[in-house]
Structures
1.
Amino acid sequence: MTTWSPRAVDEKILVTARHDAVRTPVDAMIRCVTVPSHSDQAPAPRAEAVVDLDAVRHNVGLLSGIADRSGAATMVVVKADGYGHGAAEVGRAALGSGAAWLGVATLEEAAAVRAAGITAPLLSWLHVPDEDFDPAVAAAVDLSVSSREHLAAVLAAGRRTGRAVRLHLKADTGLGRNGAQPSEWAGLVDDAAAAAASGEAEIVAVWSHLARADEPSHPTQDVQAAALDLAWRHVRERGFTPLRHLANSAATMTRPDLHLDLVRPGIAAYGLDPIAQPADSPLRPAMTLRVRVALVKQVPAGHGVSYGHEWTSTAPATLALIPAGYADGVPRRLNNAGRMRVRIGDTIRPVVGRVCMDQVVVDCGDVPVRAGDTVELFGTGDGDSPTAREWADELGTIHYEIVTGMRGRIRRTVRGDGPPTAAGTVGNGNGNGAGTPAGHVGSGRW
Ligand SMILES: Cc1ncc(COP(=O)(O)O)c(C=O)c1O
């Protein structure tokens, strides 16, 4: 353990001096991963999720190209604030690179997309029947309905706003979540057909969602596709020709036979492969989590680190304090040496000891590091660097949960949206190119 003797202090000074002597080349390396978009006057944020819209464009171009070969259009799903990447920024990038539609879960998310000036076809699908549908109908948001009660609510909004409601009738083909059961389908279709006949509604689509798309050859896919076909035929027999849509990212990438008229990829647009490991995927992860070192210190052998002293140095060690913790979305369950790795320059080093509310500690080994340097917690995976997928695998969860879980004091910086600023190409979350931080459609924070 450290004793606060003059000798210990002298040793620390010596170690620091040696450390500085070898700093220059590695320091240059570390600066390569420092966000280059911040001017000398404005230091890089303490902790930021950098979103690369060029990666989104690459991914959406790839997905919409695959869909196009089947004759299907592409709806990119931007619910949950674009899976944590910024719904408006991702939406604009997606629409400019092959997507024709956007999809969200809630009315608030739909309103935020419209408030960002996006006028493209937009579907919202998860509602409580007594919500206020008027603004969504007035803003030409397509609405999914799963029951007669939902349908009555949105038709009432159409009457109040004087507009025909654009309907997507959702069938529960086997997922057991939203959507009408087969026994309820005829009643829902009767009501929708009557509304369409009177001009109150347009039946735009019949749709459903897959339960096991990440197992491409699982028979459930075919069962669900057949059930959707039956539901659609029922509507056709009433004289309507709605679109059909079923495929999420996994089915878009692996099951062209399920593309139908429209595919709805979400996670793949953000560069996270629903099936393959990052190294085997054609997708490019769009989010990189970067945090700047708050403090560097030398500790002697036998020094415990973080609550509970779950890790103790076995030799003198250089430790870097990283100011991001579980309140920011770094899962506390990534405790234990080696389960969480960070990239410092081009070196990968382990987080040691417990993840705390605000901070984690990295054992830097021989890597010279200084307060203010930037480390990467997860990102593209290039050079064996950590990925959101790696965190998810460690935790027994999915990368969706990691990227949608960034929050608290982590700032989002969107790159590749709007004109370059003096310091680089940085988006701003509200599309005005003024270089302000991006965020929850303009807020800069989750
Ligand atoms: C109805 C619906 N469609 C499409 C998607 C996109 O799914 P994925 O992110 O797996 O592509 C989701 C996301 O869960 C969804 O809820």
2.
Amino acid sequence: MNIFAENLFGEVPKVSSGNLVVEGELDTRHGPILYLEDVSVSFDGFKALNHMSLYIDAGELRCMIGPNGAGKTTLMDVITGKTRPDTGTVFFGQTIDLLQIDEPAIAQAGICRKFQKPSVFDALTVFENLELALKADKRTWQTLFYRLNGEQRDRIDQIIETIGLTACNHQRAGILSHGQKQWLEIGMLLMQEPKVMLVDEPIAGMTHQEIERTAELLLSLQGQRSIVVVEHDMEFVRSIASKVTVLHEGSVLTEGTMDEVQNDPRVIQVYLGG
Ligand SMILES: Nc1ncnc2c1ncn2[C@@H]1O[C@H](COP(=O)(O)OP(=O)(O)OP(=O)(O)O)[C@@H](O)[C@H]1O
Ligand SMILES: [Mg+2]
């Protein structure tokens, strides 16, 4: 058979649209940066997530609210690969199937998570904590054996400024306030240049002033990356949210602006009923 005929009638080419997507590379050109469809998770028969679907756009700051046990933390567990759903689809961009890769690979792909309890190193300074976060990043593993270069120092300084800790640069993390430790941990996550940051209850235990600064920080971080914030404090959510998703019994009850969701009779019912 002639070679041209074989090409014509043989295997269908993998790329036919003209948009070549490299395997494993984030592609958000035709839709959200993160989506879950029809995801269910059960624990001993109890459905913590129940046919949940959710779409997060590149660069957006999304707030998730919902009563205790609604499934907010479980949702983050699913996105980061800690918990595997029984059914459903979880994609990072249009090409990375998060159910096919493990927890470290998901983090490496650009999805990071801030837990409630800060895990900074008390004996190290603010700068050193960030330096460590940089070295922990596999893409720059060789820096383990070399001194920081100027570019890396600049990057650390820039992050310290972003998180508002310039004045504490050389202070040990152990003497920082609770709020400052939380910001430092956000800074450590930023060192890895995540595309999506998941933040679960960031303001618990903070003073009023720290809460305000945290709101400013999260607002300043959107755009460059997507941020999903779970928080119970409605005043705080109102201060940062453009779009709020309300979870209830493992599903999305409604989505909209803070005013829309707060005036939704179903949301009022869920909160009063809870
Ligand atoms: N590992 C687990 N084993 C058994 N049940 C679990 C597990 N993780 C979560 N659950 C249950 O799943 C439901 C959803 O929990 P989840 O922690 O996701 O809720 P949440 O919305 O984060 O609540 P909160 O606002 O209290 O943090 C709860 O009823 C919880 O008890
Ligand atoms: Mg939770």
3.
Amino acid sequence: MPVIVKGGTVVNSDQSFQADVYCEDGIIQAVGPDMDAPSGVEVFDAGGCYVMPGGIDPHTHMELPFKEKTVPEDFFSGTTAGVVGGTTMIIDFVIPGPEEDVLEKFHKCQSLAEKSCVDYSFHVAITWWNDSVHEAMGVLCRDHGVNSFNHFLAYKNSIMANDEVLVNSFTRARELGALCTVHAESGELVDYYQKKIFDSGITGPEGYPQSRPPQVEGEAANRAIRFAQTIDVPLYLVNNSCSHSMNEIARARREGQRVFGEVLTSHLILDDSVYLNPDFEFAAAHVTSPPFRPKANLEALWRGLQSGDIQTTASDHRYFSAEQKSIGKEDFRKIPEGTAGIEDRMNVLWTHGVNTGRLTANEFVAVTSANTAKIFNIYPRKGLVAEGSDADLSILDPQASQTISGKNHHQNVGFNVFEGMELKGVNVATVSNGNIVYKEGDIRTERDAGRYIDRPCFASYYSAIEKRSSATGPTSVDRS
Ligand SMILES: [Zn+2]
């Protein structure tokens, strides 16, 4: 059924204005004042509300395998929780293990994700290298709408991309016009310090942040940035948690390099004191990589968002149950890493970002949706409320309040890291693919309603990179 959102203030990343929004066939057909609402059209009264592009969460991990089972949160329950919080698209991760066939893993993940209720896409991790991986990257870009490849610099002896993999994969991405993304923590240093801390007798979750201090993130961020600079490929750093990595991004950007950064809402709010809690279950529930950091980093991350050095926000929604976490009761190194947050990302950011004056409403749209759409080359299809864009909307009532609680959230998750937080300004309705899928507590999401979204290669920043590299290419001297 067509939908008219009436009487709200449309908020895009560049401007805000009073307008109604008419959606039909999954597309925004018109944006303008005082539209008529003919019969057969569902009307949502958005008086006093902000009508914004639906959120894009560029970093989620639904339905992860764990010890031959999967985590409780699947693509349908996870995207439904996202819808309640105003998120209408996710970019999840395909993570083939070492030697695992990349295309096969991609197709496996794609079929799991079909149950999503909103649109979705995938970063594909490059964890090892041979000719078949080189070939698979080409097929993914050409035939499957993948334009970003992730590299874990952590997780030695598992999915870590070593320097040789980085050179090969970054070079291949450059040929294909794809974006390289990186999880920056030095696997070598983490491996060394995990053993050292554990052997010193610290076996509880407090050992976790001590074994991967901010310097290991700074080192890996700098290494990835210098590799990208040398190979001349654009780079996106996921889940920056501290000033160490952020300063590397800022420096690179000052030097004219195309480097983008993401921050998780949880890293903007929580600090490392959570690991000192005497209750194992509580402390272990916060074990995630990178870990929560000493408090001084939080304000630095906010300043990164404000200054534009960091462009996007994500949840890194990745949940393991208390039972699954308890496997590391005697050894913090075995605690599965992850925290949830897809449902709360936007509401928490509004309360702590917009209400505190750190971000304008337009900047909020930029860091929750528009910037992600631009960086991953799906703008203005996504990330904009305008005629012709996908009809994905988050409708936020700045006067509505709510207390976050694991008791009534919609994530299939037993622990909420934002438990007890008072929100002012809450997503009250969500439109996805032209349908009202959430309205003031009424959830109408449908399994399989989400579509796989192709993301073309050669985003606009590539033409700038190409112009600059043709001016600075290798030279030879003719001595004949
Ligand atoms: Zn992640």
